[in-house]
Design goal:
Helix 2 packs across helix 3, helix 5 packs across helix 6 and helix 6 runs antiparallel to helix 12. The chain is globular. The chain contains twelve helices and no strands. It is an all-alpha fold. The longest helix is centred in the N-terminal third of the chain and has 26 residues. The N and C termini lie far apart (64 Å). The relative contact order is 0.10.
């Protein structure tokens, strides 16, 4: 049988049953987290809720760590889906930047799923360490690439390299140069520094709200978050110089829109 026929062969009955059981276990684990929080997660409790033995559950997840890794990766994936869906559904409104739309999609998912968000950004689970370059890392990279695209779309590499950030130490510059990159092209260190700083601000505001530290703002939290994201984006773009003449730009950038300083 040709190799391409093997590649397109439908999953076997055994594979479909295993996939269905895995989804059922993940759904049960998510319900368990919603009811008791991430720290209360245990294989025994999940198995008991499904009417199965822990030994049977081990056929699908050999350890609590394996189950947690899959839950984290799934949460990141669902969060990234929500952010991307928000961007795709955004009206064509030049007055509402897509980065702000993406950030609001991120906030809405976190507020709607506080326990799963806490699994990602709450107190680290005791004795758990995510596998290096594993599924949680890959899922997080997808999220990062969305925000990078919406923050820097239209800027050239030369503009990003000339961003007016405080002087980076040689050690930090070298570290940023070698960070794994998630977008279509490697960012220069000044742009990476801007992205990480903006991400800390965005995520910090969401964490404050999800953990109840901004409850005193009541129904005004969404409006204040949008204001903060607009200001954040303006501050980032203000630090990136305007583009030069089109004939100064690389060939693959000449037809792209250029951002200018908002100062």
């Amino acid at each position: 049988m040709p190799a391409d026929e093997h590649a397109t062969a439908p999953p076997t009955l055994r594979q479909r049953r295993r996939a269905a059981a895995t989804r059922e276990i993940l759904d049960a684990a998510e319900r368990h987290i919603t009811e008791g929080g991430p720290a209360a997660l245990s294989l025994r409790a999940v198995a008991r809720g499904l009417g199965m033995t822990v030994q049977a559950l081990y056929h699908y997840f050999p350890s609590r760590e394996a189950l947690v890794t899959e839950l984290i990766a799934k949460a990141y994936g669902d969060l990234a889906d929500a952010v991307q869906a928000a961007v795709h559904a955004a009206p064509d409104d030049p007055g509402l930047p897509r980065l702000v739309v993406a950030a609001e999609g991120y906030r809405r998912w976190a507020v709607a799923h506080p326990e799963r968000f806490q699994l990602l950004y709450g107190t680290p689970l005791r004795d758990y360490a995510a596998p290096v370059e594993g599924p949680t890392t890959q899922a997080m990279r997808r999220m990062s690439s969305i925000f990078e695209r919406e923050m820097f779309d239209g800027f050239t590499r030369e503009q990003l390299a000339a961003a007016e950030t405080p002087a980076l130490s040689p050690e930090l510059r070298a570290y940023l140069e070698h960070l794994p990159h998630y977008g279509p092209g490697r960012l220069p260190p000044p742009a990476t520094a801007l992205l990480l700083s903006a991400w800390g601000h965005l995520n910090g505001l969401v964490i404050l709200e999800v953990f109840g530290h901004a409850a005193f703002l009541g129904d005004h939290q969404a409006e204040l978050f949008r204001l903060a994201m607009r200001n954040l984006l303006d501050d980032v773009h203000r630090q990136i110089p305007a583009a030069g003449r089109p004939d100064d730009l690389p060939d693959d950038r000449q037809d792209r829109p250029s951002k200018t300083s908002t100062a």
